[in-house]
Amino acid sequence: MSKPYGKPNRVVIALGGNALGNTPEEQIEKVRAAAPTLLRVIEQGNEIIITHGNGPQVGMIQNAFAAAHKDEPGKIPAMDLPECGAMSQGYIGYHLQQAIGAAMHKEYKRWHVATVVTQIEVDPDDEAFKNPTKPIGAFMSREEADAELAKHPDWSVVEDSGRGWRRVVASPEPKKIVEATSILNLLDNEFIVIACGGGGIPVVRDYADKGAYKGVAAVIDKDMGGELLAEDCSADTLVLLTAVDHVAVNFGKPDQRDLEDLTVEEAKAYVAEGQFGKGSMEPKVKAGIKFAESRPGRVCIIGSLEKAAEAMAGISGTRIHD
Q: Are 319 and 299 in contact (CB under 8 A)?
């Protein structure tokens, strides 16, 4: 997994959760299709770390436990967000390991691949905890929401666009990857590493338990989690893969213009203009800005999964640099 001469370029590749499908069957099909592209990136002389979203997957897990608990509360426990996030990291990583393994087998490669269930430390005093905004779980009636609040007085619920009530949680800033040393040790032993799925499992220090970690119900932005992973692993390049080949201004309008190369200052100006979707492209551009500013020479590439190898070669995608 190394170049013939010198140190390989270390790359964090972030796959969007929606790019993995909405069912386990769809996910297997999509990651099998993506695996050969990931191998092409390695063959270009890169050492890769893979991260991924988990929005549809963690929602499916949580809703399944909620429905089962509602039907059989004495037999099936409710499952809170940190545990559902851990489950999603495990089964998405399992599918990615199998898909990459199958692609390697066809090409007689003998690389290793491993998934690290990854915790991310956040600040319990982060302002986001005072204003939770991320909806999770199933829709509820007003009566069901009141019943849940009676059982969980620390919850926050909001009415969601006339469709019912939903629990909302905070989206704090990621501060530290708890398993960073384990990830680096695997990289040093030539593993393809899968880590920080869904932005990572948010945890805080529990000083009632000698400072050990405990999970908190929150959602870390997956692009910012990927950016922290890239920084902590001393990556040279952060690749954020999505459904489009380029970042664009005036997206969806007659004068849409695809962007191939952006300086940090140009990217900041477009963000200030509101050119990018708040819940879609803007978080990716902001993560790219943060990574490019973190050390001279670092580059973020935003492009499509299908053209990941072309993006790494500089013939597709949008590059953000200092």
A: yes
Q: Is 17 a catalytic residue?
A: yes
Q: Which of 222, 225, 286, 303 is labelled catalytic? A: 222
Residue-wise DSSP of 254-295: TT-EEESEEEHHHHHHHHHHT-S-TTTHHHHHHHHHHHHHHS
Among the listed residues 9, 18, 22, 63, the single catalytic one is 18
Q: Could you tell me if 249 and 262 are in contact, meaning their C-beta atoms sit under 8 angstroms apart?
A: no
Query: Can you tell me the distance from the alpha carbon of 28 to that of 36, in angstroms, rounded to the nearest whole number?
Result: 14
Token pair of 10 as six digits:
């270390």
- Is 297 designated active site? no
Any catalytic annotation for residue 307? no
Q: Each residue's pLDDT tens digit in the chain (322 positions)? A: 444 445 679 999 999 766 787 888 999 998 998 899 999 999 988 999 999 999 889 989 998 998 898 899 889 998 999 999 999 999 999 999 999 999 999 999 989 999 999 999 999 999 999 999 998 888 889 999 999 999 999 999 999 878 899 999 999 999 999 999 999 999 999 999 999 999 999 999 999 999 999 999 999 999 999 999 999 999 999 999 988 999 999 998 999 999 999 999 999 999 999 999 787 899 999 999 999 999 999 999 999 988 888 999 999 999 999 9
3-state helix/strand/coil string of 11-32: EEEEECHHHHCCCHHHHHHHHH
DSSP string for residues in 57-87: HHHHHHHHHHHHHHH-TTTS----HHHHHHH
Q: Which of 16, 17, 137, 197 is catalytic?
A: 17
Catalytic residue among 30, 46, 137, 284: 284
User: Active site residue: 30, 46, 55, 134, which one?
Assistant: 134
134 belongs to the catalytic site: yes
